[in-house]
Amino acid sequence: MIGLEEKREFREFEERAKNFGPDYYKDYCELKKYVWISGASKWSDFKFIFNQLLDLLEEAKGQKRKLTDLIGTDVAAFIDEMIDDKGWEKKQKVKLNRAVKK
């Protein structure tokens, strides 16, 4: 369930993306659709992914480059990797499993 804080954060993502201009906003919308259907299950994961994607779009715009120049042509694989790589979460699971096995 999404609360008021999450809705506010999401609106901020949308506003930030709209400020990049129509081409980059179109890319953002396509990325957003894929992220929503591809399996991230917690708002914290979505938030992390959206922040990273917006940073990349901002960088691409600043360099006057296409997003694919920064992340490669297999955009879906790039997003999948972001979703699968939950950094600290994965490390904590490994740490817990090792501790319990001792």
UniProtKB/TrEMBL annotation:
Xref: SUPFAM superfamilies: BH3980-like (SSF158560)
Domain of life (superkingdom): Bacteria
A Pfam family this chain is assigned to: DUF1048
Entries under InterPro entries matching the protein: UCP029876
Protein's name in the database: Uncharacterized protein
Organism this protein belongs to: Lactococcus cremoris subsp. tructae
